Structures are given as structure tokens and as C-alpha cells.
Amino acid sequence: MTAVREVLVIGAGAAGLAAATLLADAGVQVDLVEAKPEVSALGSGITLQANALKVLRAVGVLDQCLVEGADSTQLRLRAPDPQATVLVTMGGENRGAGDLPNAIGMYRPALAALLTARALEVGVRFRFSTTVQRLAQDDDGVDVTLSDGSTHRYDLVVGADGVRSATRALLGIELETRPLGMGIWRVFAPRPADVPTGELYYGGHCYIAGYTPTSADRLYAFLVEDAQDRSQVTPAEKVAIVRELASHYSGPWDEIRESIVDPDAIHYTQFEEHLLPAPWNRGRVVLIGDATHVCPPTFAQGAAMALEDAMVLAELLQAAPAVDDELWDQFHARRLPRVQTVVDGSVTLATWQLERVQGDVPGLMGRVQAVTAQPA
Q: Strand pairing partners for 273?
């Protein structure tokens, strides 16, 4: 018995797909609306640490992710010198749960496809090219008006529609999304034979230069620079800029750089951060994922936090007799302190890099890892 029978999920990102699947698998009728004409994801890679893998196991796609992705249990740090000197290799021990690796790398569109297929398998009903125009709720439910003029009443609405959440705006919630002054180039490229795991170069010409395997023969590489308006660069300029930035790094970068020829495999975004204070709900409408929290990828925990939101929400809805203040108190108690630790730590590390501060990086990483290693 769940606290809800019919739920609307808004947004087909990782958080929305996971929430929809977990609820539908528990017997809830779930509709999912997505503003885009199909499920899409930025065409680069993603690092999924053990806490994210636990959620993917609950969703039912972990085995496929382990096959399609690449183990990244270890993390190697290299110096930005001409020899690309290996400084340290971390994470040789398995800190995951059971047989889980510490982390895997994966192609983002591949993960989105697996999550979508699983949602369809358990009966989630998709409505693409559709948005929510109006939410009107009372103590017992939410009346939703969609962009096609149709209306329906739901027991709960889950807003998982990203950083610029339209659901958040409909609820009248103000939240400042702050730029951090860094921009990141992400490139999907062939994987050199001498890249056994994820590797990072801190400092040098860029703040960070690194790459993470996403399969046996592919990886995604990334270069972090000062934030700039890159919106008007031509395809040829994209390739030239990334190759020039990569030219300042050696080791496997020499081979990766030569393989960067396709502008469609290059993407640029800027680092941002926000964290919505409790409550994340307004009555029977709740926000999760990037709609409530976003941070720079310095700890590769953004997707994990969004996936955890979905899992915790689904767990509580299955266990609770009603959607009431007690349920929301439990939800916020389990999510907000954990997310706060990740957001604060991620922003702190980015700020140290921007300001060239020699902070206690191992200590900061240890504190964040100690929190994320605990059950969500």
C-alpha cells in the first residue's frame, strides 16, 4: 500500500525517470510529461559513483549499466608537467556496497536510453512535447492543466525539470542560480590503450584537465577554464579551442588531442550552484534533482544526489499511509543535510581552484566521501 495511487512526474532527466520507474514498479500509475519531443541527454560522459549505482540497482538497470559503462574504481592523479607524472593512484580498495565498484564512467545518452526503456517496461506513460500550464491543489490532490488543454487530478506531482525548473516558477518559489566563474569543455572521444581508469590533472593551463573511460573503447575528456561566452563559436573553432587547451597536457592527452575532430562531440557549459532550503514541497507538489540543488562537478555527485532524491521519495511514499507533514519532515531530514554537504564541498573546491588557494583537498574529499558512503 502506497500513500499515492496516481502521480505526475515532470521532466525526463535522471531524477524524473528514476522516480517514475520506482513508483510505477510499486504499483502506482505514473504519467511523465517532458517538454522536449524525446528523452535526450548531453552527448558526453558521466561518472556514477557507488551511491548512484545503488539507486540504479533499485531502478533495475544496474546490470546493463555495468556492461555498457567502464569500471572507474581507481582514480589516478597526474602532474601537468611534460612527463604527465603520475602522482598517486587512489581507490584501489572497493568502497562500494557488495560487488559494486567505487564508480563507473558511462555515455550519458546510453544511460538515458536505459532509464527510459525501464520506465516503459514498468508502465510509465510518457507525454512528450508537453508542459504543465497550471497547478491547483487542495488537501487531497492536485488538478493539473497541460499545454494541450487536457486536465487530470493526481495525488502527487513531482517536479524534476532541471535547473530552470518551470514547476518551481509555477509554485512561486524564488531561487538564485549563481555562476561560479568556470566553464567546462566536454569531449566524447576514442579511449587510448594506456587509459586504464579515470585520470585528473589539477592546475597547469586549465583548472582541471581529465578524462573518464565510458566503455572499452570510448571516453569523455574535459577541460575546465575561466567562464566565457562560447555561444557564438563556430564548429571549427570549437575543435581548435579544445585542441589548443589540450595541447598544454601530455601523456594520454597527446593521443586524445589528435582524435578531437568532430565538433558535434564537443559541448560547453558553465558551472553554477544553488540549493533550495526546506521545504522542497508546496503541499502535494515536490521538487527534486537539479530543480532544488545543483553544484559544480568537482566531486562528480550531481547525478547521484538527484537519483537519491528519487529513491528516498519513492521509499517514503511506499511506506507512509498518507502524504502529510510527517512524510515531508522525513524526506527533508534524509535529503537536505546530505545534499548540503555535497553542494558546499563542491563549491568550496571550485572556489579554491579559482582563487589559487592551497586548501585541504584530501580532507575535504574525505568529509564528502564519508557522507556519501552512508545509506541515503
A: 178
Q: In angstroms, rounded to a whole number, what is the distance separating the alpha carbons of residues 285 and 91?
A: 40
d(CA 185, CA 351): 19
The type of residue at 197 is T
The grid coordinates of residue 303 equal 547525478
The per-type count for the chain, helices as H runs and strands as E runs, is 10, 20
- Span 167-192, pLDDT tens digits: 999 999 999 999 999 999 999 999 99
Sort strands 156-159 and 6-10 into parallel, antiparallel or unpaired.
parallel
7 is written with which cell numbers? 502521480
> Torsion angle of alpha carbons 338, 341, 344, 345, nearest 10°?
-130
Cell numbers linked to 214: 565510458
Domains of the chain (ranges; CATH) run 6-70+103-176+272-372 (3.50.50.60), 179-271 (3.30.9.30)
Q: Phi and psi of 2, rounded to 5°?
A: -110, 165
**70-71 and 103-107 beta bridge pairing:** antiparallel
pLDDT in tens, 8-57: 999 999 999 999 999 999 999 999 999 999 998 766 889 999 999 999 99
Whether the Cβ atoms of residue 120 and residue 34 lie closer than 8 Å to each other: no
The answer to whether 76 touches 86, Cβ cutoff 8 Å, is yes
Closest listed residue to residue 43, CA positions, set 109, 111, 87, 129: 109
299 burial (CB, 10 Å; 0-12 / 13-18 / 19+) is: buried
**Cα–Cα separations (whole angstroms), residue 273 to 49, 55, 331:** 20, 23, 22
Element (H, E) at 10: strand 6-10
C-alpha 175/C-alpha 177 separation (Å) is 6
